[in-house]
Amino acid sequence: MRQETKRLSSIIIAALILVGALVVYFEFIVPAYTNLEVVKGQEESEATLYSNEQQIASQVKGLLATYKNDTVSNQSVAMALPVGPDVSGALAQIYGIAANTGVAVQGTGVSIQAVQAVTPQAIASAAAAGSIVKPTGIVSFQVVGSGSYEAFKNFLKGLETNIRIFDVTAISLQPAPVSGTKTQAANQDMFNYTITVVTHYQAS
Predict the structure, then answer these.
(1) pTM (2 decimals)?
(2) What is the pLDDT of residues 92-104, one digit of tens each?
C-alpha cells in the first residue's frame, strides 16, 4: 500500500505541477508575450512614423530652398518685365546705357499702349489649356541721339543685353554734318540717329 500510495502521490504531485505550469503559462507567459508583441509593433510603428517625419522635414527644406530660388527668379522677372509701365526706370536705363557707350541722347519721346482687357472667356480658355499669362502692355521710346558708329553699335548691344527687355523696332541713321563750315560736309565717324525702342510691362 505504501508503494501504491507513493505512486499515487507522485502522480498527483506531477499533475499539480503540470496544472501549475499550464496556469503560469496561460496566465503570465502568454499575456507577457502578447504585450511584448504589442510593444514591438508600437516601436516599429513609431520608427516608421519618425522616418516619415524625417522625409517630410527634408521635403519641406527642399521646398523652402526652391521657394527662395523662385523668389530670386521672381525678382529677376520683375526687373525684366515690371509691373506697370515704369517709364522713369526705363528712361534711366536707356540714358545709363547711352552714357556708358558714348552716345549723346538729344531727346526722347514716350508712347504708352494700355494693357488690353482680357475677357472671362479668354481667361477660361487659357485656364483650360493650363497657360494663364498676365496681360502685358507696351511702352515705346523714340530716342534721338548722336555719336560714332562704334558707340552706336555698343548702344544697341547694351539695349539687347539689358536686364529689362528692350526691342529695337526701327533705326534711322544719317551722317552728322560738320558745323562751322560752308559746305556742311559729313563727318565720317559721327552720326545722328533715331531709334524706336519697345519694352513691355505686366498689368498691375
Answers:
(1) 0.56
(2) 999 999 999 999 9
